[in-house]
Amino acid sequence: MSFRSSRSSEIWKSGDSRLKFVAVLAGVVLIAVGLVAYSTIPNVHTIPIQSTTPLASPARIVVSPNFESETQENVTLLPGKENTMLVNLTVSNTAGGPASIQFKLFTGPELGDCMRDPNPTGCIVNENVSNQTIRVSVNSSTTYYFGFDNRDPSNSKTVLLSSSLLATSAINVVGRDGDFNYAGLALGGFGLLVTFYGLASKTVIPWE
After folding, report:
1. CA separation for the pair 116, 119 (Å, rounded)
2. Rounded to whole angstroms, what are the CA distances from 39 to 42, 150, 175?
3. Phi, psi values for residue 66, rounded to 5°
């Protein structure tokens, strides 16, 4: 009876030791897989970078009834970036109240077609404005003209004009804060628990 109990205990110990070894091995593998997933799977963040360059100081432009007026500005684009011209316009009448005027934006070659032609072509912008900011994508460094056509036969219009160049680019930053990264950490944490379980568990010997 004693021999049979001793033999059973040795078999139980051997099986339990194998189980503990498998648990430790599985835990180590889970930790390794989790750490590899966390450290090697990139999570790319695209961060926009913007810079604003003033093009012209605020200027007051008075346009007489049934007259046109234009002013110009040399614009140098920033290479490798998306360039946008911001044109701020505030229009008022003789009494100082809000008003509107026909605004045209064009380059030198379009001066005749855009500003002088009754049916203008070649304008980058041709719209009635009052108090607003107009955003225009520009793709060449050249002289841009700001034209104002006062079609009111009896009232002068005063335009407060300012403009700036907005240059936008983007950089990619690689982080380790994505869903797969967190999943890798969770897997590694689970593997750590399995490893601790395998190392800390005690052998229980059943006695008959």
Report:
1. 9
2. 8, 64, 10
3. 55, 30
Q: Does domain 52-171 have CATH number 3.90.226.10?
A: no
| Burial of 116 per CB tally in 10 Å (0-12, 13-18, 19+) | exposed
pTM equals 0.61
In angstroms, rounded to a whole number, what is the distance separating the alpha carbons of residues 16 and 201?
A: 10
CA dist., res. 2 & res. 15, Å (int): 20
- pLDDT for the residue numbered 6: 53
Q: What's the pLDDT tens digit per position in 127-151?
A: 999 999 999 999 889 999 999 999 8
In angstroms, the CA 23 to CA 27 distance is 6
- Whether 124 contacts 105, CB under 8 Å: yes
As a whole number of angstroms, the distance between CA 65 and CA 151 comes to 7
Evaluate whether 165 touches 87 at the Cβ level (below 8 Å).
no
Type of residue numbered 47: I
Q: Token digits for 197?
A: 């379980």
Alpha-carbon span 170 to 41, nearest angstrom: 21
Domain ranges across the chain: 2-42+176-200, 52-171
Split at pLDDT 50, 70, 90, the class of 121 is confident
Q: What are phi and psi of 145, to 5 degrees?
A: -110, 135
Return d(Cα 206, Cα 4) in angstroms, integer: 12
